[in-house]
Design goal:
This is TlpA family protein disulfide reductase. Keywords: Signal. It holds the Pfam family AhpC-TSA. This protein has three domains: about 150 residues, Glutaredoxin, CATH 3.40.30.10; about 100 residues, no CATH class; about 90 residues, no CATH class. Helix content is about 20%, strand content about 30%. It is built from eight helices and 24 strands. It has a six-stranded mixed sheet with strand order 3-7-6-5-9-10, covered by helices on one side. A five-stranded antiparallel sheet has the order 11-12-16-14-13. The protein has a three-stranded mixed sheet with strand order 15-24-17. It is globular, with a radius of gyration of 24 Å. The two termini are about 15 Å apart.
């Protein structure tokens, strides 16, 4: 039995803007000074005066889950190469978020708050690392996953560096094209279209009901999660290997008077043409994440807001007039596992969570303010999941 664990592209890497003239590999770093060092001795750090030692800069954000393991690796390297390489971590996140992170997860490497570095350091995603030699020459810019202790030791020893090629995502090996058109509805379903950009759109009418679908180059799990209106991709379950890397384009438009609701119609189309068949099933798992009431005296009050509103960015969540389903949806996307609702708050409430990826217990500390707790169940639990089965049987 296998439950696929996935992070959306929005969760694996976090988008950041690039401004101004950018440095490249082979350039010499300018006399740039990081003024706001918020831990340690808090003295400004100048890139042009790094004691003739190599320097590794890590760019990150508190709301970026993959950034935290990269920071911990930097901490390990600082101990391993003490006095031989300098390390700096730089973030354009808010000072408040950085301070809160350091309170929960202290770091020994310098943590810098800086918003203007993006004019010279080009990166679209974090975590992002820049490796600079003792002469100020940029040797590498990219994912920290390419670096390791052996490479850093070669840098110290003055040997030539041969950085390994970064693993590329598997390409789709599946070809599909199905189109249908009549007066009442029309649809197009195909495998990935290289010339099309990503699109994930559900058009809704004035009452908020879906009326048209337009997905372009989305993964199988993202497509199914939206069409089946799952709380997260963690609700997709399979006992066999699934080609999760495959991407699809799917559009569906239908007359408002069509007798089948559009999402139900979309599910039937996908089940008819995809190589996998999806169906709901109650799966009994040895242990699952559950949301429970910790202290009934602290439960949130009934919301007085007129309209429902929510936003989240990594470990920050703000909900107005939301339900436990909305909270479950957020939690599942963070822990990447199904979360069973045992709190069962039958009313709309307001909630604000501001926890830290570096401290797993901080999520429960935030939930505890509202009398709630997320934990592993103490006994087997049945969870409704979307079961995928290959039609080929392979």
């Amino acid at each position: 039995m296998k439950i696929p664990l996935f992070l959306t592209v929005l969760s694996l890497f976090c988008f950041s803007l690039v401004q101004g003239q950018a440095l490249r590999v082979g350039d010499t770093v300018p006399n740039y000074v990081f003024q706001e060092v918020i831990n340690g001795d808090q003295k400004p750090i100048s890139l042009s005066s790094q004691n003739n030692k190599p320097l590794l800069i890590d760019f990150w954000a508190t709301w970026c889950a993959p950034c935290i393991p990269a920071l911990h690796k930097m901490e390990e390297w600082q101990i391993e190469f003490e006095g031989q390489i300098d390390f700096i971590s730089v973030s354009a996140d808010s000072q408040e978020n950085l301070s809160r992170f350091l309170q929960n997860s202290p770091l020994s490497i310098p943590v810098v708050w800086d918003t203007s570095h993006r004019e010279i350091f080009p990166y679209r995603y974090v975590p992002h690392t820049v490796l600079i030699d003792s002469q100020g020459l940029i040797l590498y810019m990219g994912s920290p996953k390419k670096l390791n202790s052996a490479i850093l030791q070669k840098l110290i020893d003055g040997e030539d560096l041969q950085l390994p090629e970064e693993e590329k995502a598997a390409k789709s090996d599946y070809h599909l094209l199905e189109t249908y058109q009549e007066e009442a509805f029309q649809y197009r379903l195909s495998s990935e279209q290289k010339g099309w950009s990503f699109k994930n759109e559900i058009q809704r009418d004035e009452d908020g009901k879906p009326r048209a679908l337009d997905f372009r180059n989305v993964s199988l799990y993202r497509l199914l999660a939206d069409v089946y209106q799952l709380s997260s991709v963690a609700r997709i379950y399979s006992e066999e290997e699934v080609a999760a890397h495959r991407k699809y384009c799917f559009s569906l438009e239908q007359d408002s008077q069509y007798p089948v609701e559009i999402m139900e119609h979309a599910q039937a189309i996908l089940n008819s043409h995809l190589e996998y068949e999806a169906s709901w099933q109650a799966v009994v798992l040895d242990s699952v994440c559950v949301l429970e009431v910790l202290d009934s005296t602290k439960l949130p009050s009934i919301s007085k807001e007129e309209e429902r509103y929510f936003e989240y960015r990594g470990p920050y969540y703000l909900g107005k007039k939301v339900s436990t389903y909305d909270l479950i949806k957020y939690l599942e996307n963070e822990v990447q596992l199904p979360v069973k609702d045992k709190a069962m708050l039958g009313y709309a409430f307001d909630m604000e969570l501001n926890w830290t990826y570096g401290d797993g217990k901080s999520l429960n500390r935030e939930l505890a303010k509202y009398g709630l707790l997320i934990k592993w169940s103490e006994q087997p639990e049945a969870v409704d999941l979307l079961l995928l089965k290959s039609k080929s049987g392979n």
